[in-house]
Hints:
Elements: H1 11-33, E1 38-39, H2 41-51, H3 53-67, E2 70-71, E3 77-78, H4 81-99, E4 102-103, H5 110-135, H6 143-155, H7 176-199, H8 227-251, H9 256-267, H10 285-298, H11 302-310, H12 315-319, H13 321-339, H14 347-350, H15 353-367, H16 383-395, H17 408-426, E5 435-436, E6 439-440, H18 443-469, H19 474-485, H20 514-517, H21 520-535, H22 537-556
Parallel strand pairs: 1-4
Antiparallel strand pairs: 2-3, 5-6
Helix pairs in contact: 1-8, 2-4, 2-5, 3-4, 3-7, 4-5, 5-6, 5-7, 5-22, 6-7, 6-21, 7-8, 7-9, 8-9, 8-10, 10-15, 13-15, 13-16, 15-16, 18-19, 18-21, 19-21, 21-22
Amino acid sequence: MTPRPARRASERERLRRLVVRVVRAADGALHRWARGPYESTLTVIVLVVLAAALPVFAACALFDWLAGGRVAASGESGTDAVPLLIAGVAIAVFALGLLRLCRFERRVTERQTLTALVLGAFAAVAAVAIAHLATGAVEPTALATAFAEAAATVTGTNSTSIPEAAFGEGKLDLGGGMLALRAFGQWLGGAAFIVVLVRVLPHLGVGGLDADGGVATRSARRLAPRSAGTMGRLLLLYGALTVLVAVGYALAGMPVLQGGLHALTTASTGGFSTYADSLRYFDSAAVEWVAIFGMAAGGVSLPLMFLAIRRRDPARFIRSYEFRLYVTLIVLSAVAVALLPRDGFDWQSTLGADHIRESLFTVVSVISTTGFESITSFVDLSTGSQAVLMVLMLVGGMSASMAGGFKVVRLLTFASFIGRELRRAIYPSLAERLRLGRSTIAETTISRINGELLLVGLLIIPAAIVLGACGLDIVGALTYAVSTLSNVGPALSYVDPALSNVDPALDTVGSTGHLAALNGLGRITAGLLMLGGRISVTAAAVALSVAAYPAVAAVRHGGWRRRTPSPVRTR
């Protein structure tokens, strides 16, 4: 029998193999370099994240050179290329020098894994904060501002305190290099989340790569025999989605460079824009429709999307419980926002194409935790519409997606748990396991989800109190705490200049001006909320317990405890 000729790999398969080879080569180079005498996986993770700042800063410096520098608010021209290169080289030399002295541990516990995740996020924030300080994007002494801006960049939160440039025609007072760094940083934050999704979360028993499309209550079912193949496939899909959005923006009339930057923040559901007015600056229905589809896709489970495309099975979306609820929430919320206008109900204006598009844009922007704003600002909506947006902020997108929030699948699981407890109240001897479609939910997973929800509830109230004491009113403090914890960004009230630190001359009193209205403590609190929402409150609590363990152990074992005198022996 004549053997069949070997089929040549398609261009898509070649690109996938290239991504897999790059991932494996980087992993091998890291293990060959980090062979020092000091064994610490946590230190290695932090130093690797810091060393990655050099290629990122270099790419942003090249973009700044191509964009022609900047015009600052004072009217003086400048460039971000040189400061970015100097900062990147200094950080990389420091990190690589220390990395040579360290090596990975042979065994890493679950607590160390969560701690490494938190420390890696803080290392990325530190690198981006240094870039903000080096380029003059923030004042050299404003460390709290640099931390908050860096946290918004890394976590993909549309919240900034940088004002609009006086001579920039609505542009932010930033150079091309920093605009690229903020957009690319949000996109890289999404790529890092994919790496964590494949390499970290499956080992913790909450993977999110289920056959039904991102059910995060089961251990990962890999899309490839090895994790590097799974990672390469998801990263390739993430990049393809970004390119598709960029092409859509270009066809909608947005300039190429602007379209590229906005595509990075749309696919990653980050929300940063090059203009202080967000997408409302372009005043284009075509741009808003492209953003709607891009943001909605960013809130969909990447494994679900990949399997549906690879197997040419669009019905896989319909079979997913989570996807059906995600779409249902979007449709019902858009109808509610459209039917609850601020100025009263009017059939002609409510059923208009522009009003329907704006309502859909607002709902998709919030549930995907992107934070883009259209012509209608979040603060200009009616009270009923704002209540709907508050619920969507808490829910967020699908599991294993770029969106933040509590996630739709957790909402489904929690609703099933409540239903089972109600049935147990009627039938005390009932023995029932929770299921979502073909997925069986373990009791430990239910406990983790309930614990996560409890931690979020316990965190929001004190965070809102701190934000209220630092310059926001009660409505702004509560909605901003929820918004930052869900990585959305905008709040649902105007900033009161009498209570805040905002300059009345600056256009920062809308839904995105709350970070500028806070003092140093408030900005640090906002940055910590962003990080906690992105890496999960549970992981942050575990890392905090690891950091506080030495002090607790010292107190528990008598370091600060009053010792009782030993009895005196007598003859």
